[in-house]
Amino acid sequence: MSRAEERGTSEFRAEVRDWLRSNLTGEFAGLRGRGGPGREHEVHAERLAWERHMAAAGWTCVGWPEEYGGRGATLEQQIAFHEEYALADAPARVNHIGEQLLGPTLIAFGTPEQRERFLPRIVSVEEMWCQGYSEPDAGSDLANVRTRAELDGGEWVVTGQKVWTSLAHEADWCFVVARTEPGSARHAGLSYLLVPMHQEGVEVRPIVQLTGTSEFNEVFFDGARTAAGNVVGAPGDGWRIAMATLGFERGVSTLGQQVGFRRELQAVTDLARSNGAAEDPLIRDRLVRAWIGLEAMRATALRTMDGVASGAPGPEASIGKIFWATWHRSLGELAVDVCGTASTLTGPDHDLDDWQRLYLFSRSDTIYAGSNEIQRNIIAERVLGLPREPRP
């Protein structure tokens, strides 16, 4: 990076920091630290108002090209934005699925009509999105989906079931991977459809988690309809589009996520020092290993960002997913061990404290967004070129 680019990034970072300091005040001051994994139910309406406030000031979709409503921020500037947002303890974003997953997918693969219809409403946070990938019998094996769609005149008719659909109960639209070619199998014959949620034929059922919250859902499509033009890429090309979306999901925003991880690790370390757990050499060793892992995680993320920045995320992004998911799950285990026997008790209304919630929700980290087993297969087959795993 040139000195001019360094100065540009430094100035951009300062601009982000100053704006957050000036705006996370008044009605928004109480939103600091609210929301996030396992806590998506917290003050949703207020966080939506905050994100629309950000949009009015031009702070959503900062990495998108200016022609699509973004700021055209460089990779370094995007990293600066996500890190400063996390350092400010700003609330968890409500439309990250639209901004970070679907938006970049439409920019890379969508038609001009699709971009014109959907991108402005993501930038302004007018429409919420969810992701229709996993199914009860498919899980992370996306190629095994059974949800089907067929053309009926000028519309696709969608029938099937999706599961573990994050924020489906808040979403206006869902990008759905469905089988559109009868008799096709595995990766062939899949299409990537954009389906409105508020219609007859769509039912959302919340799934109560170990944390007692319900940000995941089952979604049932029973003859739901969407326009024939709401297919991204060509019909039958859904696998390629879906894999690109997963690559975008593992992109720049993970650097901000790691700032949150660092804050959690520091809090666990402080707790260990205050309650005496740090005197246990095994606990000290785990704290040190967690710190080392976090530093390695950042280096790994930076090394794999080039593909995401170019608009063509590669399978190497799966390395980062395994890394952070496994690390964060281990941090949850470390946290309850530092708490000791107190971690087995809940409040009078069975309320969970932060450490219990971290432990319980982080169990899902190695499953959602592609399980560790699937990520290892992707790395082995598509990165290392090893023989494919035998299929039944």
From TrEMBL:
Co-factor requirement: FAD
Q: Which InterPro entries match?
A: Acyl-CoA_Oxase/DH_mid-dom (IPR006091), Acyl-CoA_Oxase/DH_mid-dom_sf (IPR046373), AcylCo_DH-like_C (IPR036250), AcylCo_DH/oxidase_C (IPR009075), AcylCoA_DH/ox_N (IPR013786), AcylCoA_DH/ox_N_sf (IPR037069), AcylCoA_DH/oxidase_NM_dom_sf (IPR009100), Mycobact_Acyl-CoA_DH (IPR052161)
Q: Which key words are in the record? A: FAD, Flavoprotein, Oxidoreductase
Q: Name one Pfam family in it.
A: Acyl-CoA_dh_M
Where do the Acyl-CoA dehydrogenase/oxidase C-terminal domain residues begin and end? 236-384
**This protein's record includes keyword Oxidoreductase:** yes
Acyl-CoA oxidase/dehydrogenase middle domain: from which residue to which, for each copy? 130-222
Residue ranges of domain Acyl-CoA dehydrogenase/oxidase N-terminal in the record:
11-126
Q: Does the keyword Membrane apply?
A: no
- UniProt xrefs under PANTHER family: ACYL-COA DEHYDROGENASE (PTHR43292), ACYL-COA DEHYDROGENASE FADE29 (PTHR43292:SF3)
Which family is this protein grouped under?
Answer: Belongs to the acyl-CoA dehydrogenase family.
Question: What protein name is recorded for this chain?
Answer: Acyl-CoA dehydrogenase family protein
* Record organism: Streptomyces thermolineatus
